[in-house]
Structure formats: C-alpha cells, structure tokens
Amino acid sequence: MTETPSGTPTTVSLPDGPALQQLMGHLNGSPGPRVVPGRSIPAPTSVSAAMQQAIAMPYRNNEWLLNPPDAAGWNAAIANLAQQSSPQIEKIVEKLDVRVESTTIAGVGVFIVTPPQIPAANANRLLVNTHGGGYLFNPGRASLLEPAVIAAACGITVIEVDYRMPPDHPFPAASDDAMAVWKAALQMAPPANIGLCGGSAGGGLALSTVLRAKNEGVALPAAVAVQTPWCDLAAVGDSLKVHEWVDNILVTYDAIAGRGASLYAGDEDISNPLLSPLRGEVSGFPPTMLISGTRDLLLSQVVLMHRKLRKAGVDADLHLVEGASHFTYFIDPFAPESQDIFAEMALFWDQHLGS
Amino acid sequence: MTETPSGTPTTVSLPDGPALQQLMGHLNGSPGPRVVPGRSIPAPTSVSAAMQQAIAMPYRNNEWLLNPPDAAGWNAAIANLAQQSSPQIEKIVEKLDVRVESTTIAGVGVFIVTPPQIPAANANRLLVNTHGGGYLFNPGRASLLEPAVIAAACGITVIEVDYRMPPDHPFPAASDDAMAVWKAALQMAPPANIGLCGGSAGGGLALSTVLRAKNEGVALPAAVAVQTPWCDLAAVGDSLKVHEWVDNILVTYDAIAGRGASLYAGDEDISNPLLSPLRGEVSGFPPTMLISGTRDLLLSQVVLMHRKLRKAGVDADLHLVEGASHFTYFIDPFAPESQDIFAEMALFWDQHLGS
Asked: What's the mean pLDDT in B224-238?
C-alpha cells in the first residue's frame, strides 16, 4: 500500500451535490466504520480574522514529522526547535511586558514570570505552570510562552517549571520536578491562594501532580486549569481519528505525539495514572477548568477527563475554542478568541483562589 | 463534476505510514484550506459497547436525504417518518414507565409527561420541553422521546410542546406556540421552579423563547438546558465542515438541515434572532446548560453559543458526550454515556430550580 498515488486527495474525482450524497448514503448504509470522503476544509468564517489565519496555518512539518534515530539526534532536534521558536517567544514576552526571573526552586530550574500589573486581589496569589511540548520540547526560555500569556492575562505571578525531559530524563523526572516545585510553592503562599496549570503534556503533568499530591498527602492546589491536556499516553479518544489531518499542530497521533509518549514513558507502563491521569482516581480534585478546541486532536481526551471529574463530583468546567486545533490559542494568544479564553481563565482563578 | 467515480473513497490508493505523512505534510505545507484524505473511521473504543453501537449506526437515509417536491410530499414524508419511529418511541415510553397525558394549554397541543417517581424536592418543579426534528419532524406522539427520557432521568414532570410546524405552519407558528405554553406554565408553578429545555431545533426554539420572553417582559425560566441546540439557521460553524459525513444523524448541512431551515424560516430573514438565537442579545439569561457531542455537526454552534453566554456573564456550562453525533444520546438513551449526561442534567435542575 505504498505505491505512489496517481492523484492526490484533492484531485480524486468524486461526484458532488445529490450524487455525492447518494454515494455517501450507500457507503454508510450499514453498521460499521464511518466512510468519509477526501476533503478540502476551509478556515471557518465563524471566527475572527486573526483566528482564521491561525487555523489556516500550514502543518509545522519541522515538528510533527521529526523522527531522529537516537538520543543525540533528539537532543539536537529539540535544541534546534527551541532556537527556531525563540524570536517569536521573546517577542511575545516583550510585548506582554512580563518580568522573567530565572532561578532554582528545590533544585529545579524555574522561571518566575511577573505581570506588569498585579491587581490588589492577586497580590497574594500564585500560579504554578508546567509547559507543553509533548514531554520533549520547550526547554529553558522556550517554555516562556504559556506563563507569559497566563501571567499577563490573569494578573498573577506564575512559576514556570523547567522540568527535565527525555531523551536524557524520562519519567519520573518531570513528575519529580513538578512535585518538588509544587511542595516548595506551598511555602511561598497559602495553599488556598495557589493554582496549578499546564498545557498539553504539561496539562497531563499538572493533573498527575494533583494525583500524586493526593497520594502523598501533600496539600492540593485550590484550583487547576489545564489547556488541551494530554490525559492519556495511549491512543485513547475518538478525536484522534476524527480530527486526524484536521488538527494542524499535532496532525496525527502516529507521529510526534506517539514518539513523545514512548520517550517520556521509558520503561514505565503508560497505564500508570501518573503518565495517563485519565486512568487516575480523581475524587477530591479541586475545581478544574479544562480548555480545548473543536479541531483539537486531543478533544476526546479532554472531554473524557471532564466527564470523569464530573462523575466524581468535582466542580469541573469545559471550555472550547471554535476552530482551534491543539494549542491554537497559544499559537496566536492575541486573537480575540484566545483573549476570551484567557479572560475566562482569569475569572476562574478569581472565583476559586483565596486572596 | 458529476461523472461516476472510477472508485469509491475507500478504494482510492493512498500511501500509508511515513509516505502518507510526507504527502499530507506536503499538501498542507502552505497556508490555506486543510486537505484531509478519505478515511474509514471506526467507532471508538473509548466508549461503552452500547455507545459504540450507536456511533456505528448507518446514516438514516430515510431522513437526511428526504427532499419531496412540494408541501403535500413533505406532509406525507413527515407522517411516514413519525409512523416508522413510533414503535421504538412507544417502547421507550413504556420502558421508562412515564405517564403521558395529551391535552391543550393556551390553545396549543401538549403532552404532560409524568415520571413514575417524583422526589419530594421536585414536587413543585416543572419543565417545559420543545422537541427536536429540524422544525419539521416529530409531531404528536413522535415528540415523546425527549420528555420521556428527561422526565424519567430528572424525576420532574415535563410539558412537551407539540408546536405547529412547516410546511403548513412556518415561523412564527412554533415560536408563538412555545411562547403561549411558556406563559401558561408560569401560572402552573412558581417561575423560580420552572426550567425550559429543548433539543436540536427545539433547543434553538427554547433559546429563542428566552429571548422573546426577555423582549416581551415575561418572566424567564429559572434555568435552561439545551441538547445539541440548533443556534443559527445559516451555515455557521467550523464543525459543519469538519464533522460533515462523520455525524451519522445530520450527515451534512446541505441536506435535511438546510431544507428544514428554509421551510421553517419561510419569508422571514434567517438572521432574526428568534430563528437564529446565536445572533440574539443574551445578557440576563438564566443559568444555561449546553450539551453536544464530539462528532456533532452542530458542535461549533453550541460552542459559539456557550462562549457568547459566558462573555455576557451568564452562568453557562458546556458538556460533551464522547463520540456522539447530533442527538446520539437520545438515539440510545440507555447507553451509560447517555445516562451520565441526563444525570448531569438532573443535577443541573436540582442546583438551579427552587423547590
């Protein structure tokens, strides 16, 4: 099945209009898999011009297709990608006017990101964020996109955990680092005033840090907000197929996401809830905000996590961004839809954190 | 473009694995529409066996492809479909053991659907539901699926509005009927104890009834729950394309949904918020629960409505069912995922209705 196709999916001759409908009705006329024709899907008109542009962005072929043969290759690729993304991230950090302090907490590298203005109600509040990047990418200052956007939008100081990553440091290094910083943060502000957040892989890490704190009898965050969290390292969720090739960030689970899962898990079974928090016991979780997008490859994982939290009686809210693939609202954090979802997050902290 | 295709979407030769990834990366290598290959998407393993079966169900070709040439043809098709669905609906009504009383309120045909047990807290609570069916289908007892499921799951009496529909009665007949019953319901229980709900077209009708009550100075419901509401009659929302051919109930907006929109609107502009509540002014809305599914053709409309309500400061909650197309949780209301979402609705009423 690897012969060169005579055409491309866009040039295959299909009938259109009523004839296509009849054909599809026939192909889907008995129980079984859903047969879907090749399509060209435009960026929707139901979003702002800025969000349309983010949705129309090409696949990031320098990232999702990466497949170096060995650890040295991975390290080079990770460093290269960090360097490529650096100018854009530094520009956003500057535009948002946040102050960035690089330091060490409990032996773990962190960035303390302070917004230009802190409302009085937020003076004694603190957020801890674990960045995304498939458990592989965004070391060092490449991790600053999320905390800069969140600090600026929410008016709260954010500690960004520059946790250790594969290939050199598979699980449990990242979990250990997040946990160490979490415990230290509990000495920096009243627990009732501290929120935990994280995006993508960092969203999974934030959720698993709550599971771990529960298990170890450590104080939980007062609230948790996760941005398109990667909740299960296995290929779990309908959207992995429905949004395959539609999501322009992750594209397909069989590429960088699957490789990140393997490299992060190392010798550990991916069914361990600290790797796949969707399999954890979530009763007693604090109020939790879950964000995803209607094109997110991980939408189903976010939805399944939301249902699981709700069934456990947790005050959990789901918010979706129209047309957004995985993380699109961080790709253009200034699009009106992105600003809306970060304003929602600011409100969430205000409602659930003590002051 | 209507020549017979030499193959079908499933037999087109595409490379797979790395070669397919390279091809797709190339085809999506510059800004523009998303190019997605033809696919066969299995029912997910992330849901119960019952929900898997509902997701794997064939298209309902006797419904979404309907296109009679005239009013008489529509009336015959609508009656025929009601007759076809009757045995299944009556079976569910019987299984749920609800009592159904057919009567008239304010000149409008209604069914009063009473659950077998009413918890003490619900004795003075009341729900008004406007059923789905594209503003075309489910007249008379064919409307009983929703109120039976909701009454049984929530333990609250439901008044189902058997509103007039096209082709004989286009807008504003349905809106007038819903409004007349809503006003009458306000005399049957304290407004603080009454919730308004509706599914699909009836979800749009429920939302537009709130808009109309606001405009006319009539008391609003204490809470609103809408099941995959049709919030805009125009082709609004990214999921209309992304979930085209994936949703096995509506399939595509260019078939029965679009025809229902035209027939319902009649001579009215579809941008009227009473037809397309997504265009309405929603400040002051009561707490609102919005339900959809990850394969719902209308997912984007539900998400856009949720964002609009949130931006207006409304206490609005979004809940999605994994793998569900438009209305799948009513197709098999006994699947665990359906029971979960109706339990969520029961909790919602309990939290927001007075007793």
From this structure: 98
Taking Cα atoms as reference points, which of B222, B227, B226, B221 lies closest to residue B351? B222
Chain A CB contacts of B33 under 8 Å are 40-43, 56
Q: Which residues of B touch A288 (CB under 8 A)?
A: none
Distance from B78 to chain A by nearest Cα, in Å?
20
Cβ–Cβ contacts within 10 Å for residue A198, how many? 28
**Least Cα separation, residue B23 to chain A (angstroms):** 9
| Total count of residues recorded for chain B | 355
Query: Between chains, do B22 and A307 touch, taking CB under 8 Å as contact?
Result: no
Q: How far is CA B124 from CA A329, B59, B184, B192, B286, in A?
A: 45, 41, 16, 10, 19
Q: Cα(A301)–Cα(A304) distance, rounded to whole angstroms?
A: 5
- A237 vs B40: CB contact, 8 Å cut-off? no
How many Cα atoms within 13 Å fall on the side-chain side of residue B157? 20
Angstrom distance (rounded) from CA B220 to CA B185: 11
Which range (A206-210, B7-11, B189-193, B228-232) has the least confidence? B7-11
Nearest to A351 by CA among A317, A308, A320: A317
Give the N- to C-terminal CA distance of chain B in Å, as an integer: 61
* Distance of alpha carbon A328 from alpha carbon A325, whole angstroms: 5
Task: Please report residues of B whose CB lies closer than 8 A to that of A337.
Answer: 307
Three-state SS sequence of B109-161: EEEEEECCCCCHHHCCCEEEEECCCCCCCCCHHHHCHHHHHHHHHHCCEEEEE
| Dihedral over Cα of A68, A71, A77, A82: its sign | positive
> A296 to chain B, minimum CA–CA distance in Å?
10
Report CB contact under 8 Å: B40, A38.
no
* ipTM value: 0.96
Cβ distance of A310 and B303 shorter than 8 Å: no
Q: Peptide bond preceding A229: is omega within 30 degrees of 0, i.e. cis?
A: no
CA distance A186 to chain B (A): 31
Q: Do A41 and B33 touch (CB under 8 A)?
A: yes
Stated as kind and residue range, the H or E segment containing B184 is helix B173-185
Residue B13 and residue A1 in contact, taking contact as beta carbons nearer than 8 Å: yes
User: In this structure, what token pair is assigned to residue B215?
Assistant: 């405009």
CA distance B187 to chain A (A): 34
Mention every residue, 6+ apart, whose C-beta is less than 8 A from residue B90. B141, B144
Q: Please report which confidence band the pLDDT of residue A283 belongs to, taking 50, 70 and 90 as the band edges.
A: very high
Average of per-residue pLDDT across A163-175:
98
In this complex, do B323 and A300 lie within 8 Å of one another by their Cβ atoms? yes
Cis amide prior to B33 (ω within 30 degrees): no
β-pairing, B223-227 vs B194-199, is: parallel
Neighbours of B90 (CB within 10 A): 16
pLDDT of residue B217: 98
Q: Tell me if A246 and B248 make a contact (CB, 8 A cut-off).
A: no
- Residues B98-107: what's their mean pLDDT? 98
The shortest CB-CB distance from A317 to any of B10, B39, B317 is to B317
Separation between Cα atoms, residue A316 and residue A223, nearest integer Å: 10
| Cα B336 to Cα B49: distance, rounded to the nearest angstrom | 9
Which domains can be identified in chain B, with CATH numbers? 49-352 (3.40.50.1820)
- Residue B15, pLDDT score: 77
Tell me the per-residue pLDDT of A109-146, one tens digit each, with 9 for 90 and over. Answer: 999 999 999 999 999 999 999 999 999 999 999 999 99
Residue A326 in contact with residue A228, Cβ under 8 Å?
Answer: yes
Q: Hey, CA dihedral for B28, B34, B36, B41, is it positive or negative?
A: positive
User: How many C-beta neighbours within 10 Å does residue B267 have?
Assistant: 6
